Amino acid sequence: MYGFCGENDFGDATCSYNGTAKRLKDEVALKTLEDICPDIFQETNVLCCSPEQIGQLQKNLEIAATLGLARCPSCLSNFRKNFCQFACSPRQSQFLKIEKLGESDEGDVVIEKLTYFMSRSYAEGMFASCKDIQGLTPGSTVLDLMCGGWGRECTPERWLNFMGSTPADDGFSPFEIKYHLTSDSELIIDGQKFNPMNENTTSCSESPYTGAEACTCLDCEAACQLNIASPPPLPAEKEDFTLLHHDGVSVLCLIIFCFVTAFLLLGFFYFKIQSRKSLRFIPSQVVEKSQDLTDSKKVGGEETHQMPDTEIISNISYLQKLGAAIERCLEQNFCQWGTYVAEHPLPIMALSLVASFALASGLLFRFTVTTDPVDLWVSRSSQARQDMEYFNKHFEPFYRVEQMIVTPKNKSSFVQSVKEKNQLKTYTWGPVFNRDFLLEVLDLQLAAERLVARNKNKTITLSDICVAPLAPLNKNCAIQSIFGFYQNQRSLLEDKNFDYLGHFKDCAGTMGEMKCFAPYGGPLQSTEVAIGGFQNSEYHSATALIITIPVINHYEQTLNEDALLWETVFIDFLKNYQSENLTVAFKAERSVEDELERGSHSDILTVAISYIIMFVYIAVALGEVNTCKSMLVDSKISLGFAGVFIVIVSVLSSLGIFSFAGVPATLIIIEVIPFLVLAVGVDNIFILVQAYQRDERLPDETVSKQIGRVVGQVAPSMMLSSLSMSSCFFIGALTDMPAVKLFALYAGVALLINFFLQMTCFLCLFTLDVKRQENHRLDLFCCIRTSKQEKINTKGVLYKFFKNVYAPLLLNNFSRVLVLITFLGWLCSSVAVLNKIDIGLDQELAMPEDSYMLNYFQYLSKYLSVGPPVYFVITDGYNYSDQSSQNRICASHGCDEDSMMVQLKWMADRSNRTYIALRPVSWLDTYFEYIHSPSCCFHLNNTHCPAESRRKECQSCSLPRSQRPVGDIFNKNLRNFLQEIPSQACSKGGRAQFGSAVELKYSDKGAAVGATNFMTYHTILKTSKDFYEALRWSRKISGWLTDKIQNDSNSNVRVFPYSIVHPFFEQYLTMWPDTFNSLSYSILAIFIVTFLFLGLDIYSAIIVVITIVMIIVNLMGLMYWWNISLNAVSLVNLVVGVGISVEFCSHLTHSFAISPEPTRVKRAQSALQKMGCSILSGITLTDCGILVLAFAKSQIFQIFYFRMYVGIIAFGTLHSLIFLPVLLSLIGPPVNKQKMYDHIHLQDIASQSRISQANDASM
């Protein structure tokens, strides 16, 4: 064949020619041939191609080079040999066989079909050198685009046959070329001898000729193995700690439990034997008598604390004196305050209420509630938040996602054949490819596109707010769905003659073909974003369609108002959409925030019922009803409601204070703090009221003085618990997590205000109620007075139970050992599972049970086939116009062997560890290809000329492939690259793909590059662990890249990863350290406050802390067994657990510490008698209202509040009423000798007073 003979249906027609090769004399053609076919040029100057053919060959080869083959010189060299031999070789007749001739429009004989005999080794060598070259999108290759519909299933035969196909078969050849691959060196066909074309090929890891470079690692897997640089070693995977082939922690806990249990049992039997031996030689009456002696002795193995006064005084340490002085000071001051308040109840109550309402008034002016998940869970000082702000500021926020996942109700697959390269191939198609189903889903998509929202006098359509990369030239939205393959045209799917399945097969494999472009003017990001429910790239087996509508997300939130309104219409439309054939799961960008807020509102009734139950219990339980006749007098309903009212006022005051300060509240604060303050406040109320009820008025003592004396006794304990909890929360506010910080601040202030109101307002009301009762006036109806009833002094059934039954039973020797062993086993079993607690918060749990988002999350987990995009950002300040700086980033010829792009390729190759699914596409390398292509870069008077529609006077700005754009040339032409729309003339235009990847900064000196990013994708992420591990690895990779860039240059730029999901999961990277720090700070605060307000009693402080730690550890064990994950919400509740545990422990420990009983056992019994009833009735039973939360619609309420609060109350009760008394009876603090002396001295004064009064009476 030689020359062109007119045209055929597909372009220039090649003439049939059987003569000898001709000498080429055209100097321009010779020069061109030397450039593109050096092997043939050096071999001979007689050829079978004309100058016109050489010119056309140059254009065609340049198109292939521009598509990406030029990235690998070895591939391009091998590729050129194929077509150079085909078009110009003087030995054409040895490997080309004409199969069909035709006639051109000028009447010449032209070729219509021929067979190209080619050595298989050459074909495979050429294919191997090109198959890894990076394509236009992350993870794709150039051959995905150049292999027709085969895409990732490309083989040497399929690639060659596509290149030899005509436009009638979606190819580009002007006549049909049938490639015949063979391993034989000689063939006889129809009596004619052929020698298959068998040129040498160059491996992509080798240089094709002197002066050229081998392919880079990014485009050649073989080159990676020869790379001097090697990928950074990945940290070794953590191995589970094991002992004896079992979980190591569990085995250690079991060993510790067995050892300590054995020690306890041996100790128990030893002291039992020793006790019997000592009692054997001591008459029982002596033992009994000895317990009344003042000498310090050991009786029955236990030390008493009674000694003569002179010995007590001589043995008092300074610390004991100071501690006793502190307690005496507190008691005296509270006594005086209580007396003063009881004498002036009305003015003090009025002042306290006025102050509280003044604080609460802040709610009327500046009260706001934060519902934005980012503001709730991501600190502004956190790295992820700063990275997100940087990305949004320098580029643009990640688009708002409106998404539908559609599945057919009929799940039946069907079998149908499609035409693939002139061959029928049968596939089993998934149910989503049913024609009727596709038509209905297309109608759904089009209906969504037509939705209109209204904002005042303005209408808002999707085109007003959507992402349209090619606007204003093309205003169509970049909707990602398979209907983009059909240009959203219903007529194509309805056409029975149109092979819609074959078309999908072609486009799914090669999205870059123009016929597959969506109406917005570009391809899908990937086939995986539009379909789901398939395995191993078998797209035809998909069971779900995914429609994603990207909407512009403005950096200024006020500019998103139109999008929010349209999303509301979108949600309402899909909520009301019904179909007999399909199911739609959907979400809008605003959906999560909307559903969180709705969920909190939907549980208002549940929370209200819970509060009412607790209120009613408090009102009834506070009373001390002795007889039916005095029931209405002795009841405390009004006082109970007053106590609850004070809790509400304290919460409102706290909200008001922070509203004045401009600090927003959260739904967690509004819903949880009332429970917390109620638990503390009501317990203090019970302690105060029951202490007065059990007290006996001294002779000549007024009501006011009695109240003052009782307040002096119990107020230090009340203050201890309130200050301990407040300190716990204030220190807990040191955390960076906004939701936890705000909760801790609000709770700490509310508890302080609550204590203030208890010591003022409630004390006033209590005084008035006592006077009402003593005047025999009815509760609630104080104007009605009854006849005087004889007062029956009774301690109550619960008090008698604790005194006569429970305390003696619990504190006998056998029970104490049994309790210690039981609680030790419980503690060890909890420690054994701490490291197995899941970290994270499943998105489904944050939604109400009836939320449409639950269905969406389930579909997302089931059908999602690609992870979220992740951007590796280089901060502003990097000099991209310097060639050495370019080499550290790019992956083209001359770039560093361990450049940023190569390292990211290494990471993508190990996606099972790194969570990086695909190698990214580099805007820098694409820019090089753009400026090296003679058909791309054009300008006129420094103004960009589009390659597709350039005017004749436009001048080329392309550079030779051996020359890099540097300096001003780099910056000036980069702007052209970012304005160029991809087209058939120039596929490397960067506007659609990289328009938002490069920040251009303009000044008087022109444009310069600011921050840039390189996009790829995470692997499929389904669980919380997947998400935060993906973030962890992204940061490790970015750290390596930052070190690489900074070490090789003087630049201080930083590389950081950003994905829209990263800010929400950053908290889980440090969840255990955050949990440990928050709980440690809280417990430390409790230790300090307890130490100070228990009279510098370090023993008591340590015992309180030990018990609280046990409660929290066991609560965390419950989290494992009851499937409660560790996250910000559960951490808040753990902090709450620490606070409420103080209530359970501090009162009992304080009562033990001030008890004057002679032995630890008796002191423990005394403390249990006095405080056990108040703990059970004031905390445990009060908070039983939380059981109602089990019926809440919000799963967060059910799991993180109901389950954890049940654990807090149950475990707090068990530890305070069972374990703590036993622990105190064994290692409780010794009696403060100064307190003992003061107690004996007061008893002596009281005894002398009684004797004097008796003598006076007898006289």
UniProtKB/TrEMBL annotation:
Q: Name one GO cellular component term.
A: plasma membrane
Q: What is the recorded name of this protein?
A: SSD domain-containing protein
Q: How does this protein lie in the membrane?
A: Multi-pass membrane protein
Give UniProt keywords alphabetically.
Answer: Cholesterol metabolism, Disulfide bond, Glycoprotein, Lipid metabolism, Lipid transport, Membrane, Signal, Steroid metabolism, Sterol metabolism, Transmembrane, Transmembrane helix, Transport
> TM spans, by residue?
249-271, 346-365, 604-625, 637-661, 667-689, 710-732, 744-768, 1079-1096, 1103-1122, 1128-1150, 1171-1192, 1204-1227
What are the GO MF terms of this UniProt record?
Answer: cholesterol binding; lipid transporter activity
Q: Which Pfam families match?
A: NPC1_MLD, NPC1_N, Sterol-sensing
* PANTHER family (UniProt xref): NPC INTRACELLULAR CHOLESTEROL TRANSPORTER 1
Q: Where in the cell is it found?
A: Endomembrane system
Enumerate the spans annotated as SSD domain.
603-768
